[in-house]
Design goal:
The protein has about 210 residues and is α+β, with helices and mostly antiparallel strands. About 30% of the residues lie in helices and about 25% in strands. It has a seven-stranded antiparallel sheet with strand order 2-1-5-6-7-4-3, with helices on one face. Helix 7 packs across helix 8.
């Protein structure tokens, strides 16, 4: 396959020549623990994105969503993300078995700034911790325990450019991609029609969220 990328950047010096250097605020904003501000932010966040990679460098970014306050802050250096039922690919969990490094972005609807946390993670099954994250009368079987190494506020430029929280920019329902149609094309099997795929999705969303 022909590579369409002919002119690439290969050194930090090239990057700096083009993009420059961060401001003093940006250079100094990183902290290495969860202070009261970070804890408050996390307590209001119903959605986060978890970035992992395996020991070969293959990466994955996975959303984790639940009611605000579902992430358990243990102390100023540790928090736990409950592992709710998913599709059993377990990409994030399998990555953590070989590489503990993680990046997390916490989001709050309507707020354009996000909270970024980087650190090390492990898969936990501590009953004492998991019991504090029950939802819909169900306790998670596992959790992702994160040791905080650095955290900082990420600026709002991406959200301002995308206008993601501005409902006037949202597409009408009939203009959105059809997820059953996409999955049917990707699975590419006569056994899984759009109707079968849609039924499976609905059943999963209605019966296996927790």
């Amino acid at each position: 396959m022909n590579n369409p990328f002919k002119e690439t950047i290969s050194t930090e010096d090239e990057l700096r020549d083009l993009l420059g250097y961060p401001s003093e605020v940006v250079k100094k904003k990183t902290i290495h623990h969860l202070d009261s501000h970070c804890r408050h932010f996390i307590s209001l966040s119903p959605l986060l994105f978890l970035s992992t990679s395996d020991d070969q460098g293959y990466c994955d970014v996975s959303p984790r969503g639940d009611a605000p306050g579902s992430v358990l802050v243990v102390d100023d250096k540790h928090f736990v993300i409950p592992e709710r039922p998913g599709n059993r690919r377990m990409d994030s969990l399998r990555n953590l078995l070989s590489n503990p490094r993680v990046g997390v972005i916490f989001m709050i609807p309507g707020l354009e700034e996000t909270l970024r946390v980087n650190g090390k993670a492990c898969i936990i099954k501590d009953e004492k911790l998991l019991s504090q994250m029950r939802a819909k009368d169900k306790q998670p079987l596992l959790g992702i325990g994160v040791e905080v190494e650095e955290c900082y506020i990420h600026c709002a430029k991406a959200f301002k450019r995308s206008k993601v929280w501005d409902h006037e920019t949202w597409l009408e329902a009939d203009a959105l991609p059809s997820i059953p149609a996409m999955l049917t094309a990707h699975v590419n099997s006569s056994e899984f029609t759009e109707e079968v795929i849609m039924k499976g999705l609905q059943e999963s969303y209605e019966k296996r969220l927790y």
